[in-house]
Write a structure and sequence with these properties.
- The radius of gyration is 22 Å and the shape is globular.
- It is α/β, with parallel strands linked by helices.
- A six-stranded parallel beta sheet has the order 11-14-15-16-17-18.
- The chain folds into two domains: 176 residues, Rossmann fold (3-Layer(aba) Sandwich), CATH 3.40.50.280; 241 residues, TIM Barrel (Alpha-Beta Barrel), CATH 3.20.20.
- It is built from 15 helices and 18 strands.
- α3 links the parallel β8 and β9.
- α1 packs across α6, α9 packs parallel to α10 and α10 packs across α12.
- 45% of the residues are buried.
- It binds cobalamin and iron/sulfur cluster.
- Iron/sulfur cluster binds next to loops.
Length: 481
């Protein structure tokens, strides 16, 4: 499906009226204080606007990282989390199939913005009801500054709605927007978000400088930002947390934005600090599940993941680990697989993407069939089964043929592991984005709503749905063995 010529700019038009909200009183978690000589900084994790959204260990880790830094510098911080599934006044729907802290969000269906009006799916807002969000704001004293985060580029209506609601409630309070969308679509965010500042890239130093500037304070850090833990405690316990042991990735896949988001290669945290964070989350915050948000968790395994897992095992931490972001299979051998099992890994996703030699080469040769098979053998020999292990296969990228995808899917299934389709999302600034634009799949100035992976911007949606159905059937067959 070609989408050239579709609308550009901001397609989100419903942010014009502040709805009347009921005066609900709610028990605040970490509210800002009325009397305080520190600057009061309110951090907000926005709603998701999408066709579908499932909480796969979602945590606003970037915002909590920035909040940790501001707190360390002496500012007072609080969090309002639109994706709080355990809010006492609005608990999220529960299903018997939920596991490991994951689950659905409440959804309110909304009219689709013009840019995605052609998509035959229901779109809407996921997360807390707006009246609960407004009550959360009402329970806070007027902050001195507000920080809003953003994640997927096509989720920008969430941050936008937060910003206009904050502006309507507290005119004159400065608002900064950061995060993935703000970094990858900075000009779009500057033009349409309504934020006073759009800060692109890593936020630790920038957020502190901006807060100091708008509050007239001159707080400095007594320790290096890398020694400060993300403020996981600001979030109501969700049963899980997300941890990042390193930032960046040594590979250069043409569809990935990691080098725009984490420039300068891979930056690892110390083993001691990672283990300290995990122990704090498990022993003090009650987390039972931990999702790794790393781009390259297993790279340089001997110096990094091995000692981390050794320390976790030695400390006797009872926790389950999940890798929703794909692991590099080439680094998994028998000793590592055994250690992963002993440490408590239960969800293992391996990046396979393709077995087509040409595509593999173009993608930088992350893994090939032989290395992938060895990794799966090592995991299976250690006791992992198809229930725990799945391969990510990239579907819907520009110019990709269905035959190639089917061959990759068949290969993964033949190894006895599940397949999860990773639907392509064109990300501005990447080589594959330029391919998608040049091939006419997406306009160069496309509304970011059109980056949404679930609308298959560079493929035939019906063919993709059929393919996913075949993948599901293959997975079912494996799981019923
Ligand atoms: C973890 C992760 C996920 C998690 C969920 C994360 C979440 N909270 O929602 C999971 C595994 C579920 C996921 C899924 C997907 N993801 Co993903 N994911 C990531 C990943 C690896 C890390 C994000 C992260 O939390 N980093 C850690 C924190 C510390 O960094 P940060 O958020 O950037 O925060 C820093 C700054 O941005 C800034 N900051 C953050 N907030 C604020 C606020 C203020 C005020 C300021 C000043 C600064 C600031 O400071 C922070 C510290 O320096 C990124 C890649 C990356 N390296 O960023 C991809 C990425 C975001 N994902 C991407 C993609 C493509 C996907 C999928 C489409 C993959 C697929 N086909 O299935 C799906 C989509 C899911 C959906 N429902 O739509 C793309 C983005 C696509 C897009 N168009 O936006 C990325 C960039 C990877 C890529 N390929 O380039 N993902
Ligand atoms: S290996 Fe993963 S994180 Fe690294 S560049 Fe490729 S897609 Fe991005």
């Amino acid at each position: 499906m070609k989408t050239s010529g579709r609308s550009n700019g901001c397609g989100f038009l419903s942010c014009c009226l502040l709805e009347e909200v009921s005066q609900i009183r709610i028990g605040q978690l970490g509210s800002l204080s009325e009397d305080c000589d520190m600057a009061r900084i309110l951090c907000i994790n926005p709603w998701i606007y999408d066709f579908a959204a499932y909480n796969l260990w979602i945590e606003p880790l970037g915002l909590l990282t920035v909040a940790g830094v501001l707190r360390q510098a002496g500012h007072e911080v609080a969090l309002v989390d639109c994706l709080d599934r355990h809010h006492p006044a609005a608990p999220a729907p529960i299903s018997t199939r939920d596991a490991y802290g994951c689950g659905h969000f409440a959804k309110v269906e909304l009219p689709k913005p013009r840019a995605i009006a052609h998509v035959r799916r229901r779109w809407g807002r996921y997360g807390l009801p707006v009246e609960i969000f407004e009550a959360e704001l009402a329970a806070q004293p007027r902050p001195d500054a507000v920080l809003v985060t953003s994640m997927m580029t096509y989720w920008y209506p969430g941050p936008f709605e937060v910003i206009w609601r904050v502006k309507a409630r507290w005119p004159g309070v400065p608002v900064a927007l950061g995060g993935v969308y703000a970094s990858l679509c900075t000009e779009h965010a500057r033009a349409y978000s309504g934020a006073d500042a759009v800060l692109s890239g890593p936020g630790e130093a920038q957020a502190l400088a901006w807060v100091n500037a708008v509050t007239g304070e001159s707080r400095v850090l007594a320790v290096a930002p890398s020694d400060i833990l993300p403020a996981h405690d600001l979030r109501r316990p969700q049963g899980y947390v997300a941890i990042q042991t390193a930032r960046g990735c040594p590979f250069h896949c043409p569809y990935c934005a990691v080098h725009q988001l984490a420039p300068g290669g891979i930056a690892r945290r110390s083993v001691e600090q990672v283990v300290r964070e995990i122990a704090w989350c498990v022993e003090s915050l009650g987390a039972q599940d931990i999702a790794f948000y790393d781009d390259a968790l297993l790279v340089d395994a001997k110096r990094h993941i091995h000692p981390i897992l050794d320390a976790i095992i030695e400390r006797g931490l009872h926790v389950r680990f999940h890798t929703p972001n794909g692991l590099h299979a080439r680094y998994i051998d028998q000793p590592l697989a055994e250690k992963m099992r002993r440490a408590g890994f239960v969800t293992i996703r391996l990046g396979l993407e393709t077995i087509d030699p040409e595509e593999e080469k173009r993608d930088g040769g992350k893994v090939d069939e032989v290395a992938f098979s060895h990794a799966v053998e090592a995991l299976k020999a250690t006791g992992f089964t198809a229930r725990e292990v799945a391969a990510y296969v990239l579907v819907g990228r520009p110019g990709q043929t269905l035959e190639k995808v089917r061959a990759t899917v068949a290969f993964a299934h033949s190894l006895g592991i599940q397949v999860h389709a990773a639907e392509f999302s064109p990300v501005p600034g990447t080589a594959e984005w330029r391919n998608a634009v040049n091939a006419g799949y997406i306009p160069a100035d496309a509304d970011p709503l059109l980056h949404n992976n679930s609308i298959y911007p560079c493929a035939d949606a019906q063919a993709m749905e059929e393919l996913k159905q075949q993948i599901r059937m293959g997975n079912q067959a494996l799981l019923s063995l």
